[in-house]
Design goal:
The chain is of the alpha/beta class and 356 residues long. The chain has two domains: 131 residues, HprK N-terminal domain-like (Udp-n-acetylmuramoylalanyl-d-glutamate--2,6- Diaminopimelate Ligase, Chain: A, domain 1, 3-Layer(aba) Sandwich); 154 residues, Rossmann fold (3-Layer(aba) Sandwich). It is 34% helix and 27% strand. The protein is built from eleven helices and 17 strands. A five-stranded mixed barrel has the order 9-10-15-12-11. It has a five-stranded mixed beta sheet with strand order 3-8-7-6-5. Strand 11 and strand 12 form a beta hairpin. 29% of the residues are buried.
């Protein structure tokens, strides 16, 4: 598996494999805006701390912290207080509960989220207001809430980066088309749309790692469904071609580099070895298509997408042909008869000795 390190997306951009994802952070207020209605979250206390930063998608259950063990306390995470933790707190005396919560809230905790239907003790509200730690409440059961909430956080905190290119849905395959400015990416994408394929993003493509083996691509909310075509300007693909010509997001299955044809460069002729590019430590298949007047690049990209789809099933046409040729040569060599050794001709003197 080869990793390309010398290709550039544009004259000023870094290679895709060398772009470092930016670290993300959300505030408690932003989390409320994203999931407040969906998860029925409400602020109970600590409203002055809604600007607290959340820097990880990991959650923490503070049961041991409530019990007094603070040597290993993940205070930088959102604290989920479920039935078990709340039952323990309510079982403590009022003075002991106030003392322990006061000690815990001195840590830089982003927020508490109390699930289920247990009442929130006033000591938690008091400690939260004093230390500006928001306390949120949801009627959902803990397991159900955590399952939904962590999925949302993982999407928001997934490593992401912005690249210059065009992302298309071609025969169900997410094809990211990149290359230097002016090489014809948007024109190629426009012809693909005309041929029935769907646009995901043009010019600004936002990539994020969805899982350890998947890179998801989408468009910026500002430029969604729009394209810039030299000579035409900005066009709205959804308005011109209909809702079926656009797609919100797509898994990146293939990376296609468009570059101007270089006469002295050797391009891939066989395709036996798979070429990949590492994005977020995910190996994405790639191919290089040289652009020259007279070449129909959109058809080549269609074939590249179908060929990669075939490879994903475990069948590599080039490798299969190579194995057939090797097997044919071995069979031909095995069938070839060995030539019999010819006996040397005897001279006249030798024949006379035989007669004697």
């Amino acid at each position: 598996m080869a990793k390309r390190k010398s290709k550039t997306v544009s004259n000023t951009a870094k290679p895709i494999g060398q772009i470092t994802p930016a670290k993300k952070a959300l505030t408690v207020e932003q989390v409320l805006q994203l999931s407040g209605k969906m998860l029925d979250l409400h602020v109970i206390a600590g409203e002055d701390g809604l600007s607290n930063a959340i820097t990880t998608s990991e959650l923490n259950r503070p049961g041991l912290a409530f019990a007094g063990f603070l040597d290993v306390f993940s205070h930088d995470r959102i604290q989920i207080v479920g039935n078990t933790e709340m039952s323990y707190l309510l079982d403590l005396s009022q003075g002991e509960r106030r003392r322990r919560l006061k000690r815990i809230c001195r840590f830089a905790i982003p927020c508490f989220i109390v699930t289920s239907t247990y009442p929130i003790p006033p000591e938690l509200v008091e400690a939260a207001d004093t230390n500006n730690v928001p306390v949120l409440k949801t009627p959902l059961h803990t397991s159900r809430f955590v399952g939904r909430f962590i999925h949302l956080l993982e999407q928001e905190f997934a490593p992401s980066m912005t690249v210059h290119g065009v992302l298309m849905d071609v025969f169900g395959m997410g094809v990211l088309i990149v290359g230097e400015s002016g090489v014809g990416k948007s024109e190629c994408a426009l012809e693909l749309i005309q041929r029935g394929h769907r646009l995901v993003a043009d010019d600004v493509v936002i990539l994020r790692r969805q899982s350890k083996k998947t890179v998801m691509g989408g468009s910026s909310p500002v430029t969604k469904h729009h394209m810039e075509v030299r000579g035409l300007g900005i066009i709205n693909v959804e308005s011109l071609f209909g809702a079926g010509a656009v797609c919100e997001e797509k898994i990146v299955d293939l990376l296609v580099w468009l570059e101007r044809w270089q006469r002295d460069k050797e391009y891939e002729r066989l395709g036996i070895e798979d070429q990949t590019l590492s994005i977020f430590d995910v190996d994405v298949p790639e191919c290089v298509i040289p652009v020259e007047p007279g070449r129909n690049v959109s058809i080549l990209i269609e074939v590249a997408a179908m060929n990669q789809r075939l490879k994903n099933t475990g069948f590599n046409p080039a490798r299969s042909l190579d194995e057939q040729l090797i097997r044919r040569m071995q069979e031909t060599k095995a069938r070839k008869p060995t030539s019999a050794k010819r006996r040397p001709k005897k001279t006249a003197q030798g024949r006379m000795k035989d007669e004697e």
